[in-house]
Structures are given as structure tokens and as C-alpha cells.
Amino acid sequence: MTSADLPSIADVSRSLLSVPVAADGPGMIDQLRELEDLKSLAAAKQARIAVAFDLSQRREQAAAGVPAKEQGTGVAAQVALARRESPARGGRLLGLAKALTTEMPHTLAALQSGQLNEWRATLIVKETACLSAEDRCAVDEELAADTGTLSGTGSLAGAGDRAILATVRAAAYRRDPHSVARRANQAVNDRTVTLRPAPDTMARLSALLPVAQGVAVYAALTRHADTARSNGDDRSRGAAMADELVQRITGTPAGISSIEVQLVMTDRTLFQADSEPARLAGYGIVPAHWARQTILGQQEHPGPGPADSAGAPETDVRAGSGTDVWLRRVFTAPGTGELLAMDSKARLFPPGLRRFLQVRDDTCRIPYCDAPIRHHDHIIPWHQDGPTTSTNGQGLCEACNHTKETPGFSARPVPGPRHTVELKTPTGHTYHSTAPPPPGTPAMSHGVAGMHPSGPPAGTASTSATGTARDMAPRTAPGPGRGDPGSTMRERAVCPSPKKHGVQVLGRVVPYRSLVVQRGPEAVPAAPP
Ligand SMILES: [Zn+2]
């Protein structure tokens, strides 16, 4: 039998699609179970393929003279792109695949037969990560043979995630009691602070801390809240703790008067009470009224903001809370909503252009990566004559920037609905990433990555758009300083009275579509025109 006679995965998908939904209830339940088994089988197959791919890439890299220490770079990123996952998750999936195929064959077999799903296999691998390869193999065998955990017929048949975790943990501790200590040491390295959006324009700020520090922080906050409440403060205990947390970390009661908060919105949303939502950098989409209230200082804050007049009077909005608000206009091309900016002759992206990339790209531009932007990258590298322009610039996270530099990866800007980048991987697959639509543009394909056997022809994206931006250059010139090729212009806007809803814009009226609005004295020098 030749490989041409064997079915491809596409053949299997087509067969599966043609299977009719069962006619009766019992049949439907059977189908649900069988499909679940199929998903597990697919996960096991993906694990084997990922490991084989890793080996083949390493072999190719070795043949190309890549030092042994650097072999394997870029493999996880390619697995992530193929599986439509973030690069970080791609790395975890590859790690899972290696552990299953090399050290935990029984767990892999259980996954393949549908007794475990990919998530539970991940839990088992994670719980044994602190063990040596030998001990891990032993735990794998113990789980399979002694308890029947993996076969689904033993004492843990029907067990949930927690029960499986407890069994695996117990087996691991028995095998290597010292792993507890090692694990604790390793866990300290994972300490971190994260922010996730929550419903109703709330955010969940989480800190993963060593237990002593976590308890200490919590105790300090509760002590403060209890004292405040015993002195007549009528806030709830939780609210008092939350307010104190914000004040201690940012140094101000409202939390945003001295920290840069970037809101991207249309002029209509700010000035004409339009309902088009805005985008808050690092959070996502926020309702229009919330954005207006934030800018005008009408949010219900527990305490008054400090009177802060550090900003230049020509460039600020006096909002209700007395803090400075900066308006920066960003021009968009009609129809596509592509943001327009100017270029620079410098090798490094100057502050204005960096800010522009930040606003345009919002998060890392590698497909499926939502990480915050840490690097402003020349898509075509400077040493390959890539210019310092908004078209040739993109925002990347640290890990993706590193991946992009790996031999075999290349990228270039290509024509697209908005700013579009084509990423080519060592296997010759291409993926496209398009900048998210700024507020006020009709919903279009958002940062979608496609896989194209052959990419669109090379070209500089939107030359006409760049032309338009240049046309606007004289009007944007009185920015924060010459040589700052920012996309933007500051406009003096004054809120006549904190009680009035709305702001009055002084200066030349130029039609524009999007605004970047910031509260607080930010790092940009405020030179008057
Ligand atoms: Zn990234």
C-alpha cells in the first residue's frame, strides 16, 4: 500500500461530515460520546505529529549549522499558528506532546482511546512535571496498572478533574517526597500580576504570590478597611479594600490621574454623544458613555483627584476632576478605517510613531497572540533596507519578536483591508494578520490569520494612504516637537465648567475620525505650537 492509497485527514473530515445525526435519543447520546472519543484521538494524533515535527525541524536546523543550544527555536510558534493558539499555549502543547510520547505512554494511550481528554492529560502531565523522567514513567505505570485511573474502569472511573489531580499528586509524592519542596521553589518563579477584562467595564487584577506575601497584602487591606469602617466610612469592606489597593499602587485615589490611560474613540463619541464604543488600551472595548465620563472626570470615584496642572495649558482639557486630559487626533482613511501616519528616516521608531503603532495594533500582531506590545518591530528588518515607517512597523510581544528573528521566518507588509502583515514560517506556510479596526469603523475581519499556500504579490501597502498622511503633515506639524513624526496632533480643548457635559475645542477645525484620549500627564513633552 502506498501513501497515495491511505486516507488523508481531509478525507476523514469529509466522511465525518456526511454522517447523519442519529434518529433517536440513545443514538444521539452514542454519537456525542463517539465524537468525544474522536476529539481525544485527534489530540493524541496531534501530540505524535508535533513531536515528529519537532524532530524534523531540529534535524534541519542541525544540518543548517544552528548551534545545538538553539535548535528547536520556532517550533512551538509554528505549532501554535497551525493550531490557532497563542504562542504561549503552543509551547505548552508541544511540552505536553513531548511528555506524553516520551515519558507517559500509558497516559497517551488513554488519550488515544478516549478515556482521557486533552485537558485531563494536561493535568496529569502538569502534576508530574517536577519529577525526573524515570519517576514520571513510574507514576504513569502506577496510574495505569494499579488504580485503573486511566482505563476508566478502576476506582477512579467517573472521577472529575480534582479526583484525578489528587490521585496523580499522591502518586508523585510517594515516588519523590522531595518533589514537594522543589515544586514550591519552582512555583515562586511563577509569581506574577495579570489583568483580565470582567463584565460591565470592570477588570479583574490578580496577583499570584508566595503564600506569606499574599496573606500579608490581604491582611493590610482588610486592616485598613476595618479601621475606615469603624471610623464611620460607609463603603462596603470589599470596596474600601479595593480603593485602598488602587491608591497604594498608583499613588492617587482615583488611580488614573497620574498614570497614562489611553482611550481610542471617534470624535463623534466624545463630542456628539455618539454611541460608537471606544477602545481602552490593555482592556478592550468599552461603552461610549463610560469613555466620555472617564475623559470628563465624571466617574464616581471614592475620593477627589488631586489638582494637577503639570501639563501645558495649550494642550489639555480641564476635566471635572481637575486632571489633565490629552487629545491626540489620529487620521483614518475613509472606507477602510486604516490609520494614517508619517514616516521617519531614523533607525529606531521615534516616540510618535511608536505611539501610533501601539494605537493601531493594540496587541501583539502575531496571529492568535493577545500579549501586550513590548517591541516596535521593523517588519522588513532595517539591515535589509526596511524603512522606519508605519507600514513597515508593527507591535510585537517579546516572545514573538524573538520567534520572528529565527532563521526561516520572514515577514512583509502586504496590501489588505487595513494594515496587513504576511508571516512566512520555515515550512513555507503563510499567515496574515490585519490590524484591528479602530473604533468607528464597520466590523471587518479582525486580525484574522489565514493560511495561504502562496501569498499575495509583494507591494507596499496603501501608498495612497501614506500620501494622504503626508498631505496632512503641515497641519500636524505643530506637535510635541519637531522630528517627532507622530500621526497625531494635539488640540487645545477646554471644558468650560466641570458641571457642563461636553468640551469646547479651540483651534483650527480639521475633520478627523478617531481620537486617542489620555488622562494624566504622560511622558510626551508638551511644547506649544
Ligand atoms: Zn506575541
Features of the shown structure:
single chain, 529 residues, alpha+beta, 4 domains, four-stranded antiparallel β-sheet, disordered C terminus, binds zinc ion, HNH, nucleic acid binding, DUF222
Helix content: 25-40%
Structural Rg: 28 Å
Mean pLDDT: 75
Task: Tell me the number of helical segments per DSSP (H or I, 4 or more residues long).
Answer: 16
Bound molecule types: zinc ion
Residue windows where pLDDT falls under 50 for at least 5 positions: 299-322, 444-514, 518-529
Largest sheet: 7 strands, antiparallel
Summed up, the domain count is 4
Portion of residues in beta strands equals 5-15%
Report, as a whole number of angstroms, the end-to-end distance.
77 Å
Principal-axis shape: globular
Number of strands: 17
Helix-strand category: alpha+beta
Family: Belongs to the Rv1128c/1148c/1588c/1702c/1945/3466 family.
Pfam families: DUF222, HNH
InterPro entries: DUF222, HNH, HNH_nuc
Protein name: HNH nuclease domain-containing protein
